[in-house]
Amino acid sequence: MKNLKKILKKWQYELTNFDRIIILSSIFISFNVIIFGKPSNDTFINFLIAIGSMTAGMVAIVFTISTFLIQNASEIYSSQYFDTYVNDKKDKYYYIALILIIMSFFGLSLSLKKDNNTFWVLILFSFALLGIVFILIYKQFNSVLEKINPLKAISTLEKIGISLLEKNYFDNKENINICIENLVQISIKLALKNEIISSKQAVNSICNIFIKLIELKVFHTNYLDILDRLLKRFMKDGNDELSSHFFKIYFELVSHAVKNQHSDFYIIFSYSFIPIEKAIQSDNLETVYQGVKYLKQNAELSVQSLPKKDNKIKNFNYLEKLDFYMQHIINENIEIALYAYQKNKSFILDICSEIYCLILKNLISHDYDNINKYFDEINKYCDALKFLSPPQATEYYGIFPYGNGLSL
Description:
The protein has about 400 residues and is mostly helical. The protein has helices at about 1-15, 15-35, 40-75, 80-85, 90-110, 120-145, 150-165, 175-190, 195-215, 220-235, 240-260, 265-270, 275-280, 285-305, 315-345, 345-365, 370-385, 390-395. α9 packs parallel to α11.
């Protein structure tokens, strides 16, 4: 009895306004037929045969249209996608329910007796079934429309991947990888159709699954190869907007990895060098500019993660990785600064200088043990700033109390 109440309560919430209107209309029409129509037995039998045939015809038409729509949409989806999403149980239940209702109409028409005291009950029942037919057909067709909508498909695959993760990663690893691979294929095909927003959404969904992996501490660097493959494909196709979007993706992954003290967070960051280096080689100024802003975000994250003077980190492995992380930022910053100097792009060089100042200033304030090697690195950076006049150089480096390596 409790289970029945739960099912009825669930159905109550799932009924839309359209469903309620159809049900109320069916009841209203059936009572009007009973009170005013008073159909004969033969008329009612013909009615049952007619609505049974009509329902069978509608199901055939909807099935044909649905198949046609899905076949057209299959160009952007992989075959695995249809196994995990398109052929879901819900659609099968819709068709099973419709077949049973059609059989009920024909069965009633054959079993109806001439002298039937429950004639009004059969009329009410038949109109109620007819209303349910329209609701099921509407829901099934709406389900098909959702399937061919890329944004809905992306959202569903993300939910499937995260729900499988929350249940058990090791038992559902293969299915999780299938969801990720489907999202990769959808993103590539949408990008080829110039659906940039939808393609970004697919990449974001991959990122959200990876963030969940990091939070559950089951993320490994092999997953980064998936992002790397996708990024290289976008770069090969010359899609700068999508390539630049990966800076945001990598920063989200790095920030969550640092927050959860994941041991490989600096490796995640190192993968983001690829679009920056490629942009420098191809002289893509916009991507370089997005890259240096991304570096500044990482610099801010790295100094926020530094332990305070009175707070010694017990996890020395994590502190060592944090040190590598800052060195990676500085080395990449030097490369961008050299590029900006050669191209005489002072607005990029200004951000590079801000990054260096931000890191070194915070290292000094935190009384960081390994600070001397960072000052050794600054000489390389000064080589990229030779065109600066002495007042400008003083403005950049006057904040540092140490003089080692700071004279131009």
